[in-house]
């Protein structure tokens, strides 16, 4: 259980385990949209490593690797290894926040556009910025002086743009998940529209999801990027509906009424 101020706790069955799995409150800025926002385990049973995503006291986005002793529910704070830091000090909102291990075993990271209205820094469409993006790295294979490796099939490797970028044009992908070889992204809208993006991983590679030219399917700031991916679902804020936080597609046969939703 990830708690925004910077604590991770554990459940065994429906009972909380005494103490904390990890406590990094002294490294985390909270709250509002900041805080400890996500955790990801490559292989909980066999690999002691795991990754956390948080905003640090300066407001920058951080991905840090920790380790635990296998068979325990206790992390070793001294094992911290900095993986990625993304400057994010101008505004406190739009931090993204999701880490996921993809079906390819790589680490995917959702970052917000840097905050403010209408992406004032122009990050989401900028291939040279790590903000407003879906990033894809391999922290298990450091290389080229970095604490992580770059998958060779990332779209901008050897071209203009940051090697870490997998997709762009996102506003605030607070949550995303994998459904087999597809990715489902809940991208938080601005004034009027929330959206769900749902793509095969092959189609998501190098995809442009349209922000800040588009909010949902509405062009709000031109010119429109060519060939951008449109959402599969949008909804308005009418009736008190709130910002989207993503979710999972159920494939469990035991949950018949939810299967495929």
Describe this structure in words.
It is a single chain. This protein is mainly β. The chain has a domain at 2-180: Neuraminidase (6 Propeller). It has one helix and 19 strands. It has one helix at residues 201-204, and strands at 2-3, 7-8, 11-12, 15-16, 22-23, 36-40, 49-55, 61-68, 75-86, 99-101, 107-110, 133-137, 165-168, 175-179, 182-187, 193-200, 214-215, 218-219, 233-236. A four-stranded antiparallel β-sheet has the order 6-7-8-9, with no helix packed on it. A four-stranded antiparallel β-sheet has the order 10-11-12-13, with no helix packed on it. A hairpin with a 2-residue loop joins β14 and β15 (182-187). The longest helix has 4 residues, at 201-204. The radius of gyration is 18 Å and the shape is globular. The two termini are 24 Å apart. The model has no long low-confidence stretch (mean pLDDT 95).
Poorly predicted ranges: none
**Oligomeric assembly:** single chain
Order of strands in the sheet with most strands: 6-7-8-9
* Portion in helices: under 10%
Terminal residue distance: 24 Å
What is the fold-level CATH name, i.e. the topology of the domain at 2-180? Neuraminidase
CATH second-level architecture of the domain at 2-180: 6 Propeller
Global structural class? mainly beta
Q: What general outline do the C-alpha atoms trace? A: globular
Number of helices: 1
Give the CATH class of the domain at 2-180. Answer: Mainly Beta
Give the strand tally. 19
CATH superfamily of the domain at 2-180: TolB, C-terminal domain
């Amino acid at each position: 259980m990830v708690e925004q101020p910077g604590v991770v706790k554990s459940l065994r069955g429906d009972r909380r385990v005494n103490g904390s799995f990890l406590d990094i409150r002294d490294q985390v800025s909270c709250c509002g949209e900041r805080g400890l926002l996500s955790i990801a385990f490559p292989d909980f049973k066999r690999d002691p490593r795991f990754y956390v995503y948080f905003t640090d006291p300066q407001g920058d986005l951080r991905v840090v690797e920790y380790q635990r002793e296998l068979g325990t529910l206790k992390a070793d704070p001294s094992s911290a290894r900095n993986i990625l830091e993304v400057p994010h000090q101008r505004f406190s909102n739009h931090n993204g926040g999701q880490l996921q291990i993809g079906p390819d075993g790589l680490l995917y990271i959702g970052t917000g556009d840097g905050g403010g209205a209408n992406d004032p820094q122009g990050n989401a469409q900028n291939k040279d910025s790590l903000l407003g993006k879906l990033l894809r790295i391999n922290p298990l294979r450091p290389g080229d002086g970095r604490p992580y490796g770059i998958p060779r099939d990332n779209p901008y490797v050897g071209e203009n743009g940051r090697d870490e970028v997998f997709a762009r044009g996102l506003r605030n992908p607070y949550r995303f998940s994998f459904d087999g070889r597809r990715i489902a992204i809940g991208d938080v809208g601005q004034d009027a529209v929330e959206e769900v993006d749902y793509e095969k991983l092959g189609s998501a590679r190098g995809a442009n999801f349209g922000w800040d030219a588009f909010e949902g399917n509405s062009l709000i700031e031109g010119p429109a990027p060519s060939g951008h991916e449109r959402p599969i679902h949008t909804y308005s804020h009418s009736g008190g509906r709130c910002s989207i936080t993503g979710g999972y597609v159920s494939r469990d046969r035991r949950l018949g009424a939810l299967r495929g939703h």
